[in-house]
Design brief:
single chain; four-stranded antiparallel β-sheet; 43% helix; 21% strand; binds calcium ion
Amino acid sequence: MQNKVTVLIIEDEKNICDFIATTLKAQGYKTITTGLGREGVSLTASQCPEIILLDLGLPDLDGMEVIRQIRSYSAIPILVISARTQEKEKVTALDLGADDYITKPFGSSELMARIRTALRHGAQMAAGSPVARTYRSGGLHIDFEKRLVTVDGRPVHLTQVEFKIVSFLAVNSGRVMTYDAIISHVWGPYADDNNRILRVNMANIRRKLEQNPAEPRFILTEIGVGYRMAEDESRQESV
Ligand code: CA
């Protein structure tokens, strides 16, 4: 029998915890659950799960502190689950090293998609991060080496900065990238507040890539947090 992927669920709301565990078990995952942050930290060390689903509002220990403690010794993917809609907390969790987040209420397909993306990213990091050569989603195709972007076979001309933004999001497809992470990738860590310039660039990118820039299919806005590029379909198939 195949080794099951172990998921640690740290969530004190019982019905949500049960929903996640049931969904994951049905998909063939092994689950460990706890409603306490401290126990979550010790279970991470003792059970070596492949991924952690972490609620930020826990009774004994703040979720941020859980991330901090786990990140001090482990790169295991952490997916934050939270009812908190405050963008600031999502950004803080991501800055502390969480891989992504999912906002309650969520459905099972969204949950599974986020878990698969985080697991694949974790595996890539562990394997020394093999660099993707291409990206494909819907009609959008990117060849990173040739710096070629096409939509439905039609070449799209992007400026150098636009290409840098798009390729950064595409390499990290399926995961949210914060504004700060994108800005520091494109303009360097000492860039001033380039939020406005990023927004202007994104508007231009969407005009070039999207059929309807107001309802983007390829690059989604995570309000107050950053952007998430649609999952690379060629990588999806390989998992
Ligand atoms: Ca909670």
